Amino acid sequence: MQQKHVLVIGGGISGMTTAIEIAEVGHEALLVESKPYIGGKVVQFSQYFPKLCPPQCGLEINFNRIRNNSRVKILTSARVNSMEGSKGNFKVQIMKKAELINSKCTACGKCADVCPVERDNTFNYGLDKNKAAYLPHEMSFPFSYTIDESACLRNECKKCLDVCEYDAINLDAREELIEKTFHSIVYSTGWEPYDAGEIALLNYGNHPDIITNVEFERYAAANGPTAGHIIKPSDQSAPKTIVFIQCAGSRDEKHLSYCSSVCCSASLKHALIASEKLKQVKILIFYIDLRVSGRNEDFLKQVEEDENVELIKGKAGKININNNKLFVEAEDILSGIKTKTESDLVVLATGIQPSLLNSKLPKDDYGFLLNDKLPEGIFASACASKPLDVSASLKDATAISLKAIQN
Ligand SMILES: Cc1cc2nc3c(=O)[nH]c(=O)nc-3n(C[C@H](O)[C@H](O)[C@H](O)COP(=O)(O)OP(=O)(O)OC[C@H]3O[C@@H](n4cnc5c(N)ncnc54)[C@H](O)[C@@H]3O)c2cc1C
Fold this sequence. Notes:
Distance between the termini: 11 Å
CATH superfamily of the largest domain: FAD/NAD(P)-binding domain
Largest sheet: 5 strands, parallel
Oligomer: single chain
CATH class of the largest domain: Alpha Beta
Strand order of the largest sheet: 3-2-1-11-22
Bound molecules: flavin-adenine dinucleotide
């Protein structure tokens, strides 16, 4: 068998799967991830449907498969700079960010203890702060501290350098350009949340208790900014009412004209989590129509049976802020009545957008990569090509791994 070398761009659950599948049948895969850790959005979930497992469940198995297979190589904090050539002979330049903390790091945390600079904690979507020298999260793979170059005072400070006992810090490190040749390339670049600030009538950004679904994930997570407590960000108290607004910006010509396919199941999950954690809470979910499939149908049944939750067919189009209180305006389609609901916390179920929105590669009208128009030897998997949940992403990533090693 002629061994092939495949470049996988994006180290989320789908990129990891593609790289592992390629390596486990005897080929080589290089996984290039722009963040300092792999795992993508799944590591930011509190729990994930359909089984509501914590992210450790699926990820730890895959981390082990990577640890045990020397044919998967990982480059974190790296991006593809340029590529040329064709199938069988792609020449790629990859830029790896300056490695201010190297692989000698034991994650003792002393660098963060003495670091004087605070930055927005990007893992928690800026809902709290951490230090410029930081461990991205408890499940980080690789398990290493890193330094935010844009926040670090470098040689003006050097406090981390003084306390590191393992010679793991080099504040003079510079970015590195790596050149390699590949048989094929897989884009597993996934998605980004749609910017809720674009939907003016929903007033996101104008009141702390209007949050998005990805922010809710972090509030619900035990390793999130509130250690898993669902709170009103304005005063940290437990909300007595929560409204979920489905299709916030989705299926709307002015924003995302498509359905992201996962937001309904995500909000059902969030409603169950909130009901379980808060007990005394009234949860309303305003939806156009609930799009759940496969095993998530059981999930819908669970929500329908939860007495804390009410599902209301109707588009909520506006959030009014009056005397610092939130009022959600919606139309209850079944009764035909226009409603105005006061709510302590409002969660916007914003859709997902492809990460490579601005790339020059062939895309569909919504910006997702088009596999049948990509140059030979280049493929797109999972959410780089369409909105999918994790289980469908894994199937897609496995199928693409086979294509990537074909002659
Ligand atoms: C609110 C919400 C909740 C959800 N909950 C669930 C759930 O409970 N269960 C479920 O099955 N699904 C859920 N989903 C869907 C799930 O997030 C996706 O199925 C999953 O993230 C797809 O994985 P992926 O690897 O394709 O993409 P991602 O998870 O987005 O990973 C892509 C990776 O590529 C990296 N990357 C991007 N661009 C580049 C680049 N140019 N160079 C290098 N690296 C790059 C990113 O940093 C990231 O690590 C949810 C979605 C939303 C919006």
